[in-house]
């Protein structure tokens, strides 16, 4: 699933290529991606045609395009969603779901396309959502947001008994961190993901937060992480951070610090990767 760096790369691409454009036409080719829009496919299209895109914003893994009437086009990429800016004459992608005609702005002769193979992603019109869509107001700020409250995050983590990886994935506590970057930050911090939050020192949580920011910053600089053709930016280019991963996806490969083979374990219907020597499994609590 695209995480914060991947969605930020997409947001930045939309900012460059579609802000200032007017949505001249909207064609919904499959209803599922707009299933959460209260107006359905026809209402979704009608609410957008003629509207000018004013900006491109993001919170966690959600992005939205504020419109000139105060509404917003809100989106989530799900597992395989892509927002592509393509020439009008370009062949349709196999999994094209929604097409947006564009006039004016920085992309003359192009259109915006929402492509989604697995269709876990989605789009909707957020009424009055230009500043912050109410549908995502409950989501916490992300660690690269200048208004993220470090002290509050540290305090909340240290009050929880859940494992620290679960806390990193809690979008009500900190948004945008997914499985890949959680494993990478924990490896850098030498912390096992099952280490309870209330058994971490303040220094350890601050250090972990710093590594979360560092790994995301490095991923952003390389265009995100791509394991296949499903994640690309608006120009259809893949990211390259997967070549720099130290833990995630590195099962049986030697740890870059100590040489111990990286281990994979099941975690919340997915996988966790860690070094059993650098990131020792925490001891059970005494009863």
Detailed description of the structure:
It is built from six helices and ten strands, in the order H-E-H-E-E-E-E-E-E-E-H-H-H-H-E-E. The protein has about 290 residues and is α+β, with helices and mostly antiparallel strands. It has two domains: about 5-135, MutM-like, N-terminal (N-terminal domain of MutM-like DNA repair proteins), CATH 3.20.190.10; about 150-275, Helicase, Ruva Protein, domain 3. A four-stranded antiparallel sheet has the order 1-6-7-5. A four-stranded antiparallel sheet has the order 2-3-4-8, covered by helices on one side. It has a two-stranded antiparallel sheet with strand order 9-10. The longest helix is centred in the last third of the chain and has 20 residues, at about 200-220. It is elongated and about 60 Å long. The two termini are about 40 Å apart. The model is unreliable at about 225-240 (pLDDT under 50).
Task: Set down the secondary structure blueprint.
Blueprint: H1 4-17, E1 22-28, H2 40-48, E2 57-59, E3 62-66, E4 72-76, E5 81-87, E6 96-103, E7 110-116, E8 122-126, H3 150-158, H4 164-168, H5 179-189, H6 202-221, E9 263-267, E10 270-274
Antiparallel strand pairs: 1-6, 2-3, 3-4, 4-8, 5-7, 6-7, 9-10
Helix pairs in contact: 1-6, 3-6, 5-6
């Amino acid at each position: 699933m695209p995480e914060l760096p991947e969605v930020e790369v997409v947001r930045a691409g939309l900012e460059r290529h579609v802000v200032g454009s007017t949505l001249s036409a909207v064609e919904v080719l499959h209803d599922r991606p707009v299933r959460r829009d209260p107006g359905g496919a026809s209402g979704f299209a009608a609410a957008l045609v003629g509207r000018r895109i004013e900006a491109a914003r993001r919170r966690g893994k959600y992005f939205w395009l504020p419109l000139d009437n105060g509404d917003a086009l809100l989106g989530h990429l799900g597992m395989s969603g892509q927002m592509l800016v393509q020439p009008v004459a370009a062949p349709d992608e196999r999994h094209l779901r929604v097409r947006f005609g564009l006039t004016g702005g920085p992309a003359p002769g192009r259109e915006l396309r929402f492509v989604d193979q697995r269709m876990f992603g989605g789009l909707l019109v957020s009424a009055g959502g230009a500043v912050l869509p109410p549908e995502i107001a409950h989501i916490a700020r992300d660690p690269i947001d200048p208004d993220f409250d470090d002290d509050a995050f540290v305090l909340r983590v240290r009050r929880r008994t859940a494992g620290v990886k679960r806390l990193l994935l809690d979008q009500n506590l900190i948004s945008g961190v997914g499985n890949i970057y959680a494993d990478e930050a924990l490896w850098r911090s030498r912390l096992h993901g099952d280490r309870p939050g209330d058994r971490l020192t303040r220094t350890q949580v601050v250090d972990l937060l710093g590594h979360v920011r560092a790994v995301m910053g490095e991923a952003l600089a390389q265009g995100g992480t791509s394991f296949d053709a499903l994640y690309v930016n608006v120009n259809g280019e893949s990211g390259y951070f997967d070549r720099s991963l130290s833990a995630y996806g590195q099962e049986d490969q030697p740890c870059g610090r100590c040489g111990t083979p990286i281990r994979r374990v099941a975690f919340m219907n997915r996988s966790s990767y860690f070094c059993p020597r650098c990131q020792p499994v925490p001891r059970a609590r005494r009863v």
